[in-house]
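Tutorial handout. Part one gives the primary structure; part two gives the three-dimensional structure as tokens.
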Amino acid sequence: MLLPKLNKLIEVTQIRGVKVFVHWSVFLIFSEPYSQRDRCVIVWGGVVAQALVAVPLLVWVEVFGYTRFQAMNAILAISGFFSLSTIAINLLPIRPLDGAIAWPLLPVLFKRSPARQDKREPAWRSWR
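Part two.
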């Protein structure tokens, strides 16, 4: 029965008479990044995740070719090329897409952190 599972969900809106629920843990994971580096890692993380789906599928098709099963071929083609297309479109530098945030933040990812200062002797000296 569906009702016992709904007690863990929170109703957020209703679209054309259909109630939309979210799990309570969704509110725990949404927070603002602490720094530009965090924002950069989050934005580029989506691109890397899509690449982790697209590249193995495309390599599989290139190395082994398609299978004799049409359904599997459809999954390979759609998943691989769709993920690659998603990467390309998402990286366009247009405001609602990640590319508007990702490209300006790329130098932040490779920026060296400030060098640690050498350990200096304290201005006061111990009696030892």
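Part three, for discussion. Residues 40-106 form one domain. The mean pLDDT is 78.
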